[in-house]
Specification:
five-stranded antiparallel β-sheet, 2 domains, OB fold (Dihydrolipoamide Acetyltransferase, E2P), disordered N terminus, mainly beta, single chain, 3 helices, elongated
Length: 188
């Protein structure tokens, strides 16, 4: 547990935050929030878009597993920090939600490269990004986002991609938040 300073009705109050793993019940980027169900049960936990942005993502796919810190407030449980996001398990997706494209499987040998989203249309299910220093567009499919635990991308958003040659040119095989690509694993 960690303690943090929180204001309640203008008065600072020290509250304890607890960390849990949970599953995203739903998240709506337009509304700016969603809810997480803790693995241990209990009331839903509000996940605000600002807390998710501090982690480096603007969206999260429904069904994703998340590691968060939350605080109990007068208005209920609220996430205060996101530590990790894991994509939804394949088994949890219905047949209609399963990929209609072959998502290339890549390993750590294909580097994560910095890119900026040119545009992404969730309704169409695809968009394009530009790798820094390269004029070539990189195709980004909705199914790749879902496989990476993301639900949408915003124009101008900084991301990290694993890029491969697809049937029609460069395509993203993996999309991660900008911060994900710049996290350093702790020395063991």
């Amino acid at each position: 547990m960690t303690a943090s300073l929180m204001k309640t009705r203008g008065k600072p109050e020290l509250t304890e935050s607890k960390t849990v793993w949970g599953q995203v019940k739903w998240f709506d980027a337009t509304k700016g929030f969603g809810f997480v169900v803790a693995e241990g049960g209990g009331p839903d936990i509000l996940l605000h878009a600002n807390v998710l942005r501090n982690f480096g993502q603007s969206t999260v796919a429904d069904g994703s597993r998340v590691h968060i810190a939350f605080q109990s407030t007068e208005r209920g449980r609220q996430a205060v920090e996101v530590f990790d996001v894991e994509p939804p398990p394949e088994a949890a997706r219905s047949e209609a939600e399963r990929p209609r494209i072959d998502i290339p499987q890549v390993g750590e040998d294909v580097p994560l490269v910095p890119a900026r989203v040119k545009w992404f249309d969730k309704a169409k299910g695809f968009g394009f990004a530009n790798v820094f220093g390269s004029p070539e567009d990189v195709f980004v499919h909705m199914e790749v986002l879902r496989a990476c635990g993301l639900a949408d991308l915003a124009p101008g958003e900084a991301v990290c991609l694993r890029v491969v040659m697809g049937p029609r040119g460069m395509m993203a095989a993996e999309v991660r938040s900008w911060e994900h690509g710049h996290r350093r694993e702790p020395d063991l």
